[in-house]
Amino acid sequence: MTDPRPWLAQYAPGVPHEVEVPDRSLVDLLDDAARRVPDRAALDFLGGTTTYAELAAAVDRGAEVLRAAGVTAGDRVALVLPNCPQHVVAFYAALRLGAVVVEHNPLYTADELEQQFADHGARVVVAWDKVVPVVDERRGSTAVETVFAVDLTRALPWTKRLALRLPVARARATREAMTGPAPGARDWDREVAAAAPVSSGHPRPAPTDVALLQYTGGTTGAPKLAILSHRNLLANVLQSRAWVPGLRDGDEVFYGILPLFHAYGLTLCLTTAVSIGATIVLFPRFDVDQVLDATRRRPPTFLPAVPPVYERLAERAEATGADLSSVRYAISGAMSLPPAIVERWEAVTGGLLVEGYGMTETSPIALGNPMSSARRPGTVGVPFPSTEIRVVDPEDPDTDRPVGEAGELLIRGPQVFAGYWNRPQETARALHAGGWVRTGDVVVQDADGFVTVVDRIKELIITGGFNVYPSEVESVLRLAPEVDDAAVVGVPGAGGGEEVVAAVVWRGEPGEPERLRAHCREHLAGYKVPRRVVAIDALPRTQIGKVLRREVRDSVTATADRDPGDRDG
């Protein structure tokens, strides 16, 4: 019988159609790696290394520190950390106890952290010492009882730690950027170093236990916590590994440029790497020169990132002659990957760069371009092993759209989340009958199963009764030589509808709005042409590069009265 899933024929050689998810936890993956490759470097942080045996031992001690602080199975443990070895230890230590990790962006304000802490109710926090004062600012209105402070400099090699103590301005500035006073907090590094390992008889997490509460939806609505089990996350690890059959156990170097507090970075830069005993080179933030310096010390073989990272690395490598030829595989996500970046990256590295698709609710990866000549730049690829998709009528998700016709993407598979934390109504809206999660993305699927994302339903602009997809307009705007970057949003207009407004980052001297709108009229129907063009210095983005459309909308709305701009009649 013919398989009704045409995308299976597009899989790279060696990629299975299905993955079997064993009854294990994420902690078991770390223990397995420590047994297989105990002396291999698990982590490299600015030259400081931690072997798998050392990492597993530190996790056991960290688990005892958390247990002594009152953490039990099911408790939430909040992490407010950049990428660093202590982040990895705290993550697995909490999981070892059967506790639930809640990841937070360390750049958040006191207001943002207060709202999130009140949401999940964590009593124990492990935070970067520079962030501890921010956590403490609103601590009284949350359930937080214990805060552990992490000093990033403790993970540096001793030569660099010594250099930071030199009485020179540069050393002082670097030290102040990496660490700061954390009055009232307990010293995570010191306590973990001094602790005994947690008892081997302490209960371990079950596959169905919740492992992670991950914030999602912050760019289109109120942030909410996606509930992800060990099984969800393990399934996505196995799917990701299967997708790249050329990965060699115990012989890969993953670059952790993406933040671990984001689902994309957590799965591709950490848990998948641990599952194959890879070395993870951690970067506390993306710095193109720091990354290229690291390639000389420990050349990468697998580099998950976002399009701007590939573009900047390729540009700098071309300018400096830096060698990126060790990167055999790269997977891009979070935003559209322009074919021009693919071409440039592959010319510099000789490796493959493919685009994938996912969302926090799918742990997060659900589709990817094949790691082969079958890939199709401009699409997000085909469903991962053990993953099914449907393209449906957004108003009636029980009605499938024909091949080639746009509709909402639905996904089903072992990586799909259980729902939102304490949000039953939001959960009911997101999960459709039969285990399908509604993505809110408008896509088109072709006859071979390849999927192209058209736009977000929530970002759809309705003007004069017509639908306008912002990404379509943005693509046209970026074709103009005077435009460096652009974001398109809908703002309230006369008569209760919306107006299409473009926020533009000019390349060099400011351009002429009317000339840009004339350019748009050459490529777009009149109702899609921006009614206003607003100059902006830089587009606000998340740490992984997604445009914060709410902030763009607020900005262009604020300029409406004082700078109405040119308008079509």
TrEMBL record:
Residue ranges of coiled coil: none
GO molecular function, one term: acid-thiol ligase activity
SUPFAM superfamilies assigned to the protein according to its UniProt record, in alphabetical order: Acetyl-CoA synthetase-like (SSF56801)
Keyword terms of this UniProt record: Ligase
Domain AMP-binding enzyme C-terminal, first and last residues per copy: 472-546
Pfam families: AMP-binding, AMP-binding_C
Residue ranges constituting the AMP-dependent synthetase/ligase domain according to the UniProt record: 31-421
Protein's UniProt keywords contain Transcription regulation: no
InterPro entries per UniProt: AMP-bd_C, AMP-bd_C_sf, AMP-binding_CS, AMP-dep_synth/lig_dom, ANL_N_sf, ATP-dep_AMP-bd_enzyme
Protein name stated in the entry: Long-chain-fatty-acid--CoA ligase
